[in-house]
Write a structure and sequence with these properties.
Elements: E1 3-11, H1 15-33, E2 36-41, H2 46-52, H3 60-64, E3 69-74, H4 82-96, E4 101-107, E5 125-131, E6 141-144, E7 152-155, H5 161-177, E8 182-187, H6 195-207, E9 214-219, H7 220-229, E10 236-239, H8 241-255, E11 262-266, E12 274-278, H9 295-308, H10 311-326, H11 342-351
Parallel strand pairs: 1-2, 1-3, 3-12, 5-10, 8-9, 8-10
Antiparallel strand pairs: 4-5, 4-11, 6-7, 11-12
Helix pairs in contact: 1-9, 1-10, 1-11, 5-6, 7-8, 9-10, 10-11
The chain binds glycylglycylglycine (GGG).
Residues 74-76, 86, 245, 277-278, 281 line the site of glycylglycylglycine.
Enzyme class: oxidoreductase
EC number: 1.1.1.83
Protein name: D-malate dehydrogenase (decarboxylating)
């Protein structure tokens, strides 16, 4: 029997509520499909930061290094500046393990109330491929003359040829593997003078190697409008770290809720563990109320199993989510129009695993 070693970091806010839900589903599905899961739990979080001054211990990366995967909840909580929490936990993990692909599906699930006009006639089912290690997420820059009227701040983006080419190549290869017709690039080369024309050049060069795939590009502003007006036209959308982050909240938002959206931070070469987390954050406004929607976390668990080679178990979870959402007596959390708790929705998904 295969046994996988999973490092578990619930993190902050609702992360502490939805991660246990995800683990319950993982335990149930592993019993059905006959594989083992061994968890190592880490309390790395803003709470830890407040008591020790660190989001994770100095040897945190080393401790995660021999896991088969990392299962993360959410990072960030009031009282700790967001750039401190992100740059001391989430971003070091992504970078140290070279998880340069952040893969985020956008899918209109049956049973999720979608605000779009004619939503029932639209098939929204595409993937966002977000660059995850460089770009606008950079510590290059600085502040001078602080507190004076000469104060200024410079923030630089970093686009390497290696980093740009490998994410664009991943998007084309992924489209080919998924039998998708189109790869769309998110750009802003009319306004961002150096980085985005470079991104466009590399995208055009890569597209030449994939003559069977339609390659198109949009500036991020009109692309955002098209996500709302005609989301059904997309297959695979590739973007820089910041553009990909924004689009992967907008996409699920267009389908009705970001609470169900999962993500995979992948090291495609499998030299290091990959990490799986919902797209949503720690939601301090509802933390502690036991009403957080666990679907983004549970779907992330399915992506983790798929990455580990347990495809059937992953499909079992996705089908159970769909069945739970479509049941006539469905038991869903308030964001989906119900009045059930995180645990009740999780029970309903577990009851639909088969
Ligand atoms: N589970 C995702 C999470 O904690 N997100 C917090 C956040 O703001 N992440 C920014 C990012 O993904 O770059």
């Amino acid at each position: 029997m295969n046994t996988y070693h999973i490092s578990v970091i619930p993190g902050d806010g609702i992360g502490k509520e939805v991660v246990p839900a995800g683990l319950r589903v993982l335990d149930a599905v592993s019993a059905i499909h006959g594989f083992g899961l061994h968890y190592r739990h880490y309390d790395w979080s803003c709470e830890l930061y407040k008591s020790t001054g660190k989001m994770m211990p100095d040897d945190g990366i080393e401790r995660l290094g021999d896991s088969d995967a990392i299962f993360l909840g959410a990072v960030g909580f009031p009282g700790v500046p967001d750039h401190i929490s992100l740059w001391n936990l989430l971003i070091p993990i992504r970078r140290e393990f070279d998880q340069y692909v952040n893969l985020r599906p956008v899918r209109l699930l049956a049973g999720v109330p979608c605000p779009l006009v004619n939503a029932d006639k639209k098939k929204i089912d595409f993937w966002i491929v977000r660059e995850n290690t460089e770009g606008e997420y950079s510590q290059v820059g600085g502040r001078m003359f602080e507190g004076t009227d000469r104060e200024f701040v410079v923030q630089q983006s970093v686009f390497t040829r290696h980093g740009t080419d490998r994410i664009i190549k991943f998007a084309f290869e992924f489209a080919k593997q998924q039998k998708r017709l189109r790869v769309t690039s998110a750009t802003k080369s009319n306004g961002i003078y150096h980085a985005m024309p470079y991104w466009d050049e590399r995208f055009a060069a890569m597209a030449k190697g994939y003559p069977d795939i339609i390659a198109d590009q949009y500036h991020i502003d009109i692309l955002s409008a098209r996500f709302v007006l005609s989301p059904e036209r997309f297959d695979v959308v590739v973007g820089s770290n910041l553009f990909g982050d924004i689009l992967s909240d907008l996409g699920p938002g267009v389908t009705g809720t970001i609470a169900v959206a999962p993500s995979a931070n992948i090291n495609p070469e499998r030299r290091h563990p990959s990490m799986f987390e919902p797209v949503h954050g720690s939601a301090p406004d509802i933390a502690g109320k036991a009403i957080a929607n666990p679907i983004g976390q549970i779907w992330s668990a399915a992506m983790m199993l798929e990455h580990l080679g347990e495809q059937q178990a992953a499909s079992t979870i996705i089908h159970a989510i769909e069945r739970a959402l479509c049941a006539p007596d469905r038991r869903v959390t308030p964001d989906l129009g119900g009045n059930c708790s995180t645990d009740e929705l999780t029970d309903s998904i577990i009851g639909n695993l088969k």
